[in-house]
Amino acid sequence: MRPGLVGFDLDGTLIDSARGIHASIVVACESLALAPPTLSQLRDQIGPPLKHYLPELLGLPQHGRESLLGELLGQFRTHHDQLGWKDYQLFGGARELLETLESSGWELHLVTLKPRPLAEQILAGCDLAPLFQSLHAPQAPGAPFSKASCLEQLHRKDGASHWYVGDTEADQEAAQRAGYRFAAAAYGYGHCSRADATIHAPLQLLESLG
């Protein structure tokens, strides 16, 4: 197959971020005398922004919930952006996958909901930045951002294959809207009911791309 373009999600696709996120949530919860979730409980929720699932996961009271959540997220970001992210780990085979695709002529792009400064920090820390032609991410936590729009804007080669690799239904929907084929990372945190390919380890993507 002629080399084409592959867009990658970050969390749950290339990076196992659960331990780093959990460590920072524990610190944030303890600072506010809240009971933190277990790592197992958190793994089932990772993917969407924290504000979308932390209130229910932690059982925050309705009265004053918004204020408490804001304080919690502030404590989380202070720890996470300095220390928590350092506990992130590449999934086994992720580096080999990217290096193989890049050396074979595939165009690689990262499209993630991680805030751009943090995404850049993670890529630099893992020495992955040189493998990607571009990084697309919100400028700050909560800033407007559409994965589908970013994928649509990427230059696509006529007659070549175009894929997005992610681990959630939202990733699948973004790929579909942008006209990409979708590979579901079943080893990640989310669940995808529809995909053009399902991979159980990063290197299995090579088989799907042909």
Descriptive notes:
The strands form 2 sheets. The protein has a 6-stranded parallel sheet, with helices on both faces. 35% of the residues are buried. β6 (162-166), α8 (169-178) and β7 form a beta-alpha-beta unit. It has 2 domains: 5-16 and 89-209, Rossmann fold (3-Layer(aba) Sandwich), CATH 3.40.50; 18-87, DNA polymerase, domain 1 (Orthogonal Bundle), CATH 1.10.150. The longest helix is centred in the middle third of the chain and has 18 residues, at 65-82. The protein is 42% helix and 14% strand. By secondary structure, it is an alpha/beta fold. The model has no long low-confidence stretch (mean pLDDT 93). It has 9 helices and 8 strands. The protein has helices at residues 18-31, 39-43, 50-58, 65-82, 94-103, 116-126, 147-153, 169-178, 205-209; strands spanning 5-8, 15-16, 89-90, 107-111, 134-136, 162-166, 181-185, 197-199.
Which stretches are poorly predicted, pLDDT < 50 over at least 5 residues? none
How much of the residues is beta strand, in percent?
5-15%
Look at the structure and name the CATH superfamily of the largest domain. HAD superfamily/HAD-like
Give the CATH class of the largest domain.
Alpha Beta
Features:
9 helices; DNA polymerase, domain 1; 2 domains; two-stranded antiparallel sheet; single chain; alpha/beta; Rossmann fold; 6-stranded parallel sheet; 210 residues; 8 strands; 42% helix; 14% strand
